Amino acid sequence: MHEGLISIGKMAKINHVSINTLRLYDKWGLLTPIYIDEDTGYRYYDMKQNARLDLIGYMKELGMNLKEIKELLDKEDPTLIEAILIKKQRSIEKEMDDIIRKRNAIKRTIYSLERYRKSPTPGTLTTEYIDERHIYAKRVNKNFYDYDQDGYEVILKEFKDQLLEEHLPQIYYCNVGTFLKRKRFLKQEFITHDIFIFVDELFPKKESVQTLESGMYACIYMDDFNNEKEYAGRLLKYCMDNNYDVIGDYICEVLIELTFFKDNERSMYLRLQVPIAYKKVDPHH
């Protein structure tokens, strides 16, 4: 009866699968042997069944489990196959986006560490060209400058809660920055409820992303959270002394958090900055 058929062992060998895999497929009703010897219990297959086995392998490569494959093969409905494949495609695309986000986050952290190593000492004033950046900003209830570092932690948690409520990837919750409106900076009025994170092209809420234009910035570097008001004043004086026009909002950017080395408080290295333009000097004066 089994003349012209092939044994389960040979079927497994020529298709690069295990005998246990073929037994499992038989158990699920995915690929049933053509003949089972009643005396020995040996299973035999027809070479033409290779096509079915190839299809099962292909569907597994697409990410389908045996239950999904069984459903598709039983119903023989092309529309159902298409629907499940579309669902799988979306799932894979989401996984790819998650992986790329993690890769980008790792690259940002490496870049931040390198930038920290090469940054000037705290208190250094510079004029720098900064590339275009993209941010996602929210408003919080408390004025950032009314509180010490403990209060800052409360504000950060409020901000993080907002991100969680919006189901946004937490991979972006790092190096949180704050804004101070241009008019307030010029008057040194430290009142702000604006807080932000830097984002990339994969950030879900693209319609809410703001762009910080590339351009020249006056900057001062800082490593002590409590010195910001003093350093912001020094930054304004630097702009005035160099005849710079402040043309946009003041930004407090956390270059990197140094909490790798401390577990009792948030330690940061910051770059305070304002976008500037050079005032035109009248050659007749």
TrEMBL record:
Keywords: DNA-binding, Repressor, Transcription, Transcription regulation. CDD domains: HTH_BmrR (cd01107). Residues 5-75 form the HTH merR-type domain. The keyword Transcription applies. It comes from the Bacteria. The keyword Kinase does not apply. It holds the Pfam family MerR_1. PROSITE patterns: HTH_MERR_2 (PS50937). This is MerR family transcriptional regulator. The lineage of its organism: Bacteria, Bacillati, Bacillota, Erysipelotrichia, Erysipelotrichales.
